[in-house]
Amino acid sequence: MDKLHVNLGAESYDICFNDSFDKLVYSLREIGAPNKLLIVTDTHVAPLYAGEVGSLLKEAGYDSAVYAFPAGEENKGMDAILGICGACLEHGLDRKSMIIALGGGVVGDMAGFAAAIYMRGIDFVQIPTTLLSQSDSSVGGKTGIDFMESKNILGAFHQPRLVYINVSTLKTLPPVEFISGMGEVIKHGIIRDAEFYGFIKDNSELIKSLDSRTLIEMSKKNCGIKARVVERDEKENGLRAILNFGHTIGHAAESALNFTTTHGECVGLGMVAVSRIAARRGLIGREILEDMENTLKMYGFRTRMALPAAEEIYSFMLKDKKKTDGRLKFVLPVRIGDVTQTRDVTEEEIFDAISYISE
Ligand code: NAD
Ligand code: GLY
């Protein structure tokens, strides 16, 4: 089985890559998982994978139960957190017990947040089942929920003890969710690794046809990029903010569209928008902007969208937690594989960028 180590001192962990759940029990034993486990999932993922995962754990002698909350970003709030904590109490989880997050980024962020606060913090394992969660949200320990129209505004850093990626789960993923995940994968290439960006372009047919070997290779390279950034700046005091490339405008568009479009597609749109700012500033050539747009389109992204008024999107940007002293932080590309962070982007540049991505 392919593995990648995330080196965070006492909080270090492995990411395992496989095309089945066959090695899950082995991986849990390797980390000395306790007997009592709660599988936290959502109502879409539960009928697909909770049975198989639950049976494997039970057959191996674990005392596991399943708790599923209603799927969807609109449920990423305190009610579901209280539901998870209630299930932890009902199943008798103590401070040594463990939560298993089985699902996409919403499940991972919420199960992780519940694990961070239940009895002042218990261990959890990530079993991400969407491309987005396999390529971004399950790695790095950011957990949290949305509150008062602000995304991920309440949360905690809480690293998982293990991330177990079974790329076969992507076979049941709706195509629109696959596109969403590719947004984060392409993002990692643009911000950090031109060679990986080339790999994504060269292997698009194998990736889109969900070839297991290629998906594992992509996933391992991709998680390696994120892990190396998180290792250098776990709590986002500097470098880690480059992972927010495309997110400032992307998150605002996602909120302004009332979450009717996927996170990753909005990130893709946000990447085009900030790259437009970079191109206007002469930081990158127009051909690089065009190349990024073509790569996104290759994977089914819309690089223009019918968006609410720019003022509305801007008003959501001003609620963003990436703002300090009233100034928004932007990550701008300087070439494929490298970016710069700045707080000097003007309102005029932002409005031009929104107009550029609007249909
Ligand atoms: P999601 O968890 O809502 O999953 C998308 C949809 O796919 C849901 O309906 C889900 O039930 C369904 N699903 C999940 N796995 C499936 C499978 N294998 N087959 C069929 N359906 C499946 O959304 P997501 O895109 O995975 O994650 C988005 C969330 O991740 C957002 O809330 C975002 O804020 C968060 N996020 C967090 C981080 C982080 O670092 N913690 C990073 C990026 C995004
Ligand atoms: N997805 C951004 C981060 O993990 O920092």
Secondary-structure topology with pairs:
Elements: E1 2-6, E2 13-18, H1 24-30, E3 36-42, H2 46-59, E4 63-69, H3 78-90, E5 98-103, H4 105-117, E6 123-128, H5 131-137, E7 142-147, E8 150-157, E9 162-166, H6 175-192, H7 194-202, H8 204-208, H9 212-232, H10 247-256, H11 263-281, H12 286-298, H13 310-317, E10 330-335, E11 338-342, H14 347-357
Helix pairs in contact: 3-4, 5-6, 6-7, 6-9, 6-11, 10-11, 10-13, 11-12, 11-14, 13-14
The structure holds nicotinamide-adenine-dinucleotide (NAD) and glycine.
Walk me through what this model shows.
The protein is α/β, with parallel strands linked by helices. The protein has two domains: 167 residues, Rossmann fold, CATH 3.40.50.1970; 183 residues, Dehydroquinate synthase-like, alpha domain, CATH 1.20.1090.10. 47% of the residues lie in helices and 19% in strands. It has 14 helices and eleven strands. The strands form three sheets. It has a seven-stranded mixed beta sheet, with helices on both faces. A two-stranded antiparallel ribbon has the order 7-8. A hairpin with a 2-residue loop joins strand 10 and strand 11. The longest helix is centred in the middle third of the chain and has 21 residues. The model has no long low-confidence stretch (mean pLDDT 96). The structure holds nicotinamide-adenine-dinucleotide and glycine (GLY). Glycine binds next to loops. The site of nicotinamide-adenine-dinucleotide (NAD) has 30 residues, from helix 4, helix 5, strand 8 and helix 6.
